[in-house]
Amino acid sequence: MTFLIPQSIETARLHLRMFTEADWEPLCQMFRDEECVRYTTTIPLTDWQTWRWMAGYLGHWHLRGYGPYAVVEKQSGRMVGPDNFVSRRKSRYICLPFR
């Protein structure tokens, strides 16, 4: 598979990368939190719904050649959320449900 964007990006504070199975539990914790999902899913998700979201993130990479990154805080090594770069016709927006 040829990806259209880098699979990994690093800044001084953050590492953006493709999701891995190890990201599922932290993602479950985020998607269970009403405050974290207020502007994304709008309602908390069950663990199996979160699994499907994560599978969708990975599937997007493999079907479209790009997709959401898992955002990892370098200092702690903690995955703090998805970046959700999404192309909507002519505009782009970012939604960051960080904890």
Overview features:
Aminopeptidase; 99 residues; alpha+beta; 6 strands; 4-stranded antiparallel sheet
SSE layout and pairing:
Elements: E1 8-10, E2 14-17, H1 24-32, H2 47-64, E3 70-73, E4 79-82, E5 86-88, E6 91-93
Antiparallel strand pairs: 1-2, 2-3, 3-4, 5-6
Helix pairs in contact: 1-2
Q: Could you explain the architecture of this structure?
A:
Residues 88-95 have low confidence and may be disordered. This protein has 99 residues and is α+β, with helices and mostly antiparallel strands. The protein contains 2 helices and 6 strands, in the order E-E-H-H-E-E-E-E. It has one domain (8-93): Aminopeptidase (3-Layer(aba) Sandwich), CATH 3.40.630.
Q: What is the mean predicted local confidence, pLDDT?
A: 86
Strand order of the largest sheet: 1-2-3-4
State which percent range the strand residues make up. 15-25%
Using the alpha-carbon principal axes, give the shape.
Answer: globular
CATH homologous superfamily placement: Gcn5-related N-acetyltransferase (GNAT)
Q: Share of helix among residues?
A: 25-40%
Catalogue the unreliable spans: 88-95
CATH class placement? Alpha Beta
Number of helices: 2
Compute the gyration radius: what is it?
13 Å
Quaternary status:
single chain
Reported for the largest beta sheet, the result is: 4 strands, antiparallel
What is the β-strand count?
Answer: 6
- What is the CATH architecture annotation? 3-Layer(aba) Sandwich
**How would you spell out the order of helices and strands?**
EEHHEEEE
Q: How many domains make up the coordinates?
A: 1
